[in-house]
UniProtKB/TrEMBL annotation:
Domain Nudix hydrolase: 49-183
CDD domains per record: NUDIX_Hydrolase
Protein name according to UniProt: Nudix hydrolase domain-containing protein
Organism listed in the record: Actinacidiphila reveromycinica
Family: Belongs to the Nudix hydrolase family.
Amino acid sequence: MITMTITANHIRTTIAAYLDEHPEDKRELSVVLGRLDGDDDLTNRKTLPSHVTAGAILVGPDGRVLHILHNVTQKWLLPGGHLEPSDETLLQAAARELAEETGIPPHVVVPHGETPLHIDIHPIEANPAKGEPAHRHVDFRFLFRTTADIGELQAEEVSGAAWRTVNTLHDERLGQRVAQALG
């Protein structure tokens, strides 16, 4: 088993900071906090029924949000994915995934803060090709800003990218938080 640099304590601290800003999400995240107190390694993608992922909400200079067309799901999603052993923080993991999937170099991306703008728990369909049963992702989504445009896409995972208005985000709460953060 690969040990991740991101610790249960880091995840716990990140959730606490998030709940200070969004106490209305406490009930939903209490299950995650309970699992962190157990022996579950939520940083490992093989941990079921759920594990932690990191995502990026990238906003361009015109206030639009970058979406990617994910090859496996054939859905337009925010950039993001599983944690890697080299990730030291959830924010760093989100920035790495953003750079990998979109080709936008990290030096032209600025994080809005160290606390996620949104933590989303959502279902993932079974993927027989990878031997993965249906499970859930606990996605820590961080807001970033950039003046750069899309670079070379990670062809193995992404087949398209587009800037879309905030009101096209599939999650209403997320859309409200992005709009509020952009002021």
